[in-house]
Amino acid sequence: MPSLTLSNEQVVELVKQLPQEQKVEIFRFLLLSQWQQWQDLSSYGADKVKLAAKERGYDWEKMTEEEREEFIDLVVHEK
């Protein structure tokens, strides 16, 4: 079977020309193909924030949403 070589820009331009229904299908395919990596990254981040809280004397699970936001802001701006 012959193959066609396209640049990323060409692929994007072709996708832009598709009907919305086909764009949604491509989006689902791309999302599902990366789902495990997103899940792994999310779990990694959750574990790290809990560890960072524990190291600073906090219990992430007992913190309110507001306390969590304040904690993250504090950690992000640490020097």
Account of the protein in words:
There is one protein chain. By secondary structure, the protein is an all-alpha fold. It has one domain (18-76). It has three helices and no strands. It has helices spanning 8-16, 20-55, 65-76. The protein is elongated and about 60 Å long. The N and C termini lie far apart (58 Å). The model has no long low-confidence stretch (mean pLDDT 94).
Draw up the topology in text.
Layout: H1 8-16, H2 20-55, H3 65-76
Give the gist of this structure.
Helix content is 72%, strand content 0%. The chain is mainly α and 79 residues long.
Flag low-confidence runs.
Answer: none
Q: Largest sheet, if any?
A: none
The total of beta strands comes to 0
Compute the number of helices: 3
Whole-number mean pLDDT: 94
Query: How many angstroms does the end-to-end distance come to?
Result: 58 Å
Helical residue percent band: over 70%
Order of helices and strands: HHH
Q: Structural class from helices and strands?
A: mainly alpha
Strand content: under 5%
**Cα gyration radius (Å):** 21 Å
Tell the overall outline. Answer: elongated
Number of domains: 1
Protein name: DUF2281 domain-containing protein
Organism: Pseudanabaena cinerea FACHB-1277
